[in-house]
């Protein structure tokens, strides 16, 4: 029997980047907020001198316990989905700060094309360019409308970037608040090669601070030390922007935020038209609580946002057979696999040093920055070189033909430890009618709730994209003059292993039409106006970029909408 608690004005489910931004904005405006986080409390001190690759990179110390909650996966409806029991394709963060703790810091605004992808594609190429079954749609908002919110997130996080405007991306109202990170010798090689080929290289915008910075809320943070422990790790310096060192302290300082950790929300209480609160379980004691609230805000990860709506029977579930319904629709992932690797016999680099967002990129083949008229795909990929830092366990690159063990393997591993560079593409992913998220009919979590099921595979569109981007990566690497070069241009069927990207998107997509979207442009549910669902679950497709910038911008816009709602309840559009 659940214990019913006193009603609160606002309850937030999940306290990562999105929850942190919402909590900060609402509490600064004087509103009382309760934030429920299913993981444990975290602070910067937890990571002091803890460069433990085994604990965090290999044993996933910051990630969700898959023995208690996981997802199931299948490529097609003809297959039986099975649970993901060990980490592979993507990583599900848990604890205060969420995935914002273990992200790399790579920060890219989505392109203007992304937000109007359907209309822009039809305008340039005609409707026949979009293959049957591809369900791309405009997002209901333009880049120009979202630009001020990108700017606000960047000032809060202290994003580092080049002062000059990159001509391949959307226009900016202000320069980045801090300078770009250090340009390494390998980046200079990439820059010279790409410029020679007529492209437009630029330093990767970074959530790893290039210099000391104090943000508009008065939060001061130190500069990155290039220690190479970013992805899958918390930052011991506070140099990597994360919710625990930026927005959450601001909300706490107001006295209006109550954080309850170890509190796993299992259901949204509702009457089909309004939410009345949430049910959550204390993960330590097993006690169940009902938390009534005037406004319910879902700010957890993509899969959990979708699963909570479906398990709570809130919103219309997507039906792939009829193409109707919206919750679970337009799931998309990321298309990687296009790369060219160079081995240098006579040149050594300091590859052991680095940062998660230390890199250089070209966007000449991203979005619609190039002519797709004769190509069998739309959108594209950013092509990049990065230096995240080669940690000892996970990095052992050797040329093809090297034995997998023994003396020759050891010698090659030592020789090339700091002599391998990679130029790779991170590609967009389009939604399809037969790619979706729903509840698994067989498997349940530790609380007896159905797990979320993923039905997804790579398409010919993705394979054509990989071939094209690989040819460009190969071209660039040749100009960088390695001793040996090997290029990957093949994309096989999607599998839940090995690790590929944590950039899952969709399932609660935004838009201007309730028949094809769950939320409006303020991320307010069409079917329950006191419920807001915030995160990459709102993306109608996935771009060739990392999602955090766009998630951050949408969070600030949603916060603005929630403040309007709290003043005058009702639909915001």
TrEMBL record:
It holds the Pfam family GMC_oxred_N. Its EC number is 1.1.99.3. It comes from the Bacteria. InterPro entries: FAD/NAD-bd_sf (IPR036188), GMC_OxRdtase_N (IPR000172), GMC_OxRtase_C (IPR007867). The keyword Translocase does not apply. Residues 143-332 form the Glucose-methanol-choline oxidoreductase N-terminal domain. This is Gluconate 2-dehydrogenase flavoprotein. It comes from Paenibacillus konkukensis.
